Amino acid sequence: MAKKVVLSVDALGGDNAPQVVLNGVAAALAEDENLEIILCGPQDVVEPFSAGQSRCSTQVTTEFIDMDEHPANAVRSKKDSSLVVGCRLVKEEKADGFYSAGSTGACLAAATLVIGRAKGVARPTLCTVIPSPVKPVVLCDIGANADCKAEYLVQFAQMATVYAEKILKIENPRVALLNIGEEETKGSEFAQQAHALLKQKVPNFAGNAEGNDILAATFDIIVTDGFTGNICLKAIEGTSKILFKSIKEVFYTNALTKLGALAIKTKLGALVKQISPDTYGGAPLLGVKSACFVGHGSSSVLAIKNGIHTTAEFVRKDVSRLIAETVS
Questions:
Q1: Which top CATH class is 123-278?
Q2: How confident is the model at residue 18 (pLDDT cuts 50, 70, 90)?
Q3: What integer pLDDT is reported at residue 318 of this predicted model?
Q4: What is the DSSP string of 282-308?
């Protein structure tokens, strides 16, 4: 039997909140009988919903952090926001983990300031699973640390290794450093320093990865600074959207192309599902004391549901403790 898990969820997180969040929570509760949710948000949103759910309680909040607010300032000034309160429930051990599809910056600030960093972690890292058509690839950092020291990337690699092994079930994941060439001497001074440290301190380090290695899944984990990683992720997401839009337009050109689309509909649908970011539903912030997952602002009901499931799995596999032990 699966371990009972209690998660706090931000009811106001996401572009289509609260309804998409409520629907996602309902779907997650229906699929996991050992899951309990503490829904954080306005009284008129959370209480009517929880009244119809046997394993959903509420924490009424009176404030909301908007996407365009300064993250750290908002977290400090809006202590009764759904996002901050959700993290505080974790700190007070009333919840085992937190999920939100709200402001990424505010989630990072709240998790770091309220939940706190795990002992020995210099900088928590935000990582994501790149949905490659070959196999899942972990990319970190994707925005938590725009400015990095080379030693940070060593911890990023160590933390991402635990995540890949426990959540993605990848045995002996191969780690690579995102760079402009495969040779050790390539890249900036920062990249060369990072390469030397990774080679020395990370047993599963396999060398440099170039941009074309990401979707090809040449490596299981790719580490970089948050500035580069965020640009890389957005470039992949943008390219995917444009590519599928263009393919759809081609298929609807005329009757003949529509027949062709019908012939490959099943296989194309399977491919779309395989590379969909909704599969995992969120990016974990590795290196804080408890599970904290950040969903995309445009998350669908499926993404919210899967993000909650992944957060619960993170708790059940005790990943935060394993990360702390690995780093220390």
A1: alpha beta
A2: very high
A3: 93
A4: SEEEETBSSEEEE--TT--HHHHHHHH
CATH topology of domain 1-121+287-328: Isopropylmalate Dehydrogenase (3.40.718)
Classified as helix, coil or strand, 29 is helix
Query: Going edge to edge, which strands form the sheet with 205-209?
Result: 56-60, 35-41, 5-10, 97-100, 291-294, 283-286, 125-130, 137-140, 221-223, 175-178, 205-209
pTM: 0.89
Each residue's pLDDT tens digit, 228-252: 999 998 888 888 778 778 877 887 8
Helices (H), the chain: 19-31, 43-50, 71-77, 82-91, 104-110, 150-166, 189-201, 226-251, 255-263, 265-274, 301-316, 319-327
Write down the domain spans for the chain: 1-121+287-328, 123-278
As a whole number of angstroms, the distance between CA 282 and CA 227 comes to 19
